[in-house]
Design brief:
Length: 258
């Protein structure tokens, strides 16, 4: 009887998912989705498992999530895997988390389906992690698929600081004085030096775990994004949860600050 109930539940879930998908207006879907993958540790705690298990399961969820994005024609996905604040964690915990992230990025690259683009202050990461990220980026840069930004060692404020620093160094090498740079600097100049330069800004930003804040995620790029906060912890995030987020986005009247 239990198996029958499970089967009926699975069928109902699939039917609801198909109905949600078919109801989405295909001309109003997000091209770029950002995700704050939150709740791995709390999920693990509720399961009576160590934090590393939650991060491992959360990493495995990413491949499934990217498949959902592909089905809807999403072009860019940005995943926040590790913040600059996380780099201050106790060394043993941080090392375990970095190992899981390295395994996750390696697995994503080995699918051969997506372009993997690291974003973040990579100079703050261990050399082995930075090397792996750069190798994966190089190995996947010509893949004609979804562009996946993996935000590792990422902080929105740090990104803006790095962008301004990069701009000043570039202009200095071109012989420009500080006064000359200050007289002409504008939004486009800074945007051209962000980690995501050349990419469209996120249309939709999703945060799991019930927390309703961005914590500095894509601080510059999300000025006109739509936000969706989901109660589910990231390891429990389902396709239906994603489709509901997209449905909510499609129903909004985007005004881009006007």
């Amino acid at each position: 009887m239990g198996r029958i109930r499970t089967l009926v539940g699975d069928i109902a879930y699939d039917l609801y998912g198909h109905r949600l998908t078919s109801s989405l207006p295909h001309d109003q879907l997000p091209a770029h989705v950002g995700v704050i993958l939150d709740g791995n540790r709390r999920w693990a705690a509720e399961m009576g498992s160590p934090s590393a298990h939650g991060h491992r399961v959360g990493g495995e969820k990413i491949t499934e999530f990217l498949g959902w994005c592909e089905e809807l024609g999403v072009e860019v996905v940005t995943l926040w895997l590790l913040s600059t604040d996380n780099l201050l964690r106790e060394p043993t915990e941080l090392d375990a988390l970095l190992e899981i992230i390295e395994d996750t990025v390696t697995a994503l690259g080995e699918t051969g389906k997506w372009q993997i683009h690291p974003v973040g202050a990579l100079d703050l990461l261990p050399e082995r992690t930075t090397d792996l990220l750069n190798r994966t980026k190089l190995a996947t840069e010509n893949v004609p698929g979804l562009l996946v930004n993996v935000a590792i060692g990422y902080g929105g404020r740090q990104e803006v600081v790095d962008a301004v620093r990069s701009l000043l160094i570039e202009e200095s090498k071109a012989g420009q004085s500080l006064d000359e740079v200050a007289s002409k600097i504008d939004i486009e100049h800074i945007a051209a030096h962000l980690y995501t330069k050349g990419q469209p800004d996120p249309d939709l930003v999703i945060r799991t775990s019930g927390e309703q804040r961005l914590s500095g995620f894509l601080l510059w790029q999300s000025a006109h994004s739509e936000f969706y906060f989901c109660e589910a912890y990231w390891p429990n995030f389902r396709k239906i949860d994603f489709l509901r987020a997209v449905r909510s986005y499609a129903a909004r009247n985007r005004r881009f600050g006007i």
